[in-house]
Amino acid sequence: MLLLLQVVVILAFTTAARGGCRRLGQPAVVGEIIAGLLLGPSFLGWIFPDTFSRLFPPGSLVSLEALSQLGLILFMFVVGIELRATPAQVRRAAAAWVSGASIVLPFVLGTAFGVMTHARLAPVGVSLVSFSLFIGTAMSFTAFPVLARILAEQRLMATELGSMALACAAVNDVTGWLLLGSILALVGGGGAGYVLLRCALFGAYLGIMLGIVRPWLHRVGPFRGATPGMPPAGLPAALLLLLLSALTTEALGVHALFGAFFAGFVIPLDDSGRRALVDRIEPLTLTLLLPMFFALTGLRTRIGLIEGTRLWTDAALALALAILGKAGGSTLAARAAGMRWRDATALGILVNTRGLIELVALNVGLELGILSPVVFTMLVMMALVTTFMTSPLLTRLLPESDPSRDPAPVSASSRR
Asked: What per-residue confidence (pLDDT) applies to 91?
């Protein structure tokens, strides 16, 4: 009964917040993040502590976490599939410059932030290398699904700017998850031999998926039918591949979410098969399971932990470095590659979108004990602000009447 009540409350809050944000011109994910924060100790637990403790007693969170993990695994599988469909016709030189800058600069600045704050903010027993590299990697992500939704709503999906942004976001997310997987292979204690063994096994997993599984599926996989769409055997086979890959990476200590993402990335699908598979998995995942993740993120986020001038200065510094690294670095790289200042600035704003992918990475860090609750809260706030600022800045930079937009509105998909 309590689980059903929790699900009802979570869905009601996320649906209301999602609708409110759409009316404000914001992507749905912003409302869902806000709904999760409202249900957590930062608001509900502060205003109505008795109601909060009865609705979300600690022992009841196990079921919610199981639902959220299932939703995340399915969602990361869809993200991996969608990344395979990014536009190929882009200015490759400019895309390479922007992708490189939007990964390297935030990674360096985030790592520097970790080095500066490790002694004060890292959990006990977490090494300087693990803490710093994780924060640097987390700041390197761009929320590909959120970005796709913003581009559709801003009528930029079919433009050169939109194609460039999607291509850069795809490179960012693939590189980010590879970095994260490598860092997680280093975490977990043990001597140098143990670390080298985990890294070697992780490298073997990547090699097998790319060199053996992907070509084999391309030849014999049941994912393409004689008619457009998905054959009946396609969905069970895809889910089996997803679960086996997630199980493998979890056994390697790299987290099941990476295996889910990489399974989607290597699965061989044509456009009709990709759309058919995503259409079967995505609706229930986004509508029912993923809100559980937002609720848990809100329950883990305690804004009250950021007390005093020093911690708020740290939070502001993390936000400033995140924006400087992503938006600033991408803008300068795009300008250096020959784009106009206005287009380069718009591209920097788009690539700076973090959204749900950032939250997924941060929850992995908190779950594994790499991030403290204070740092987790700081970075959740950073993800929310960098996502919230994208649409207003784009609207100001590229007004609705701007000829660079698509001539007709593009219906936004359900993607985050």
From this structure: 64
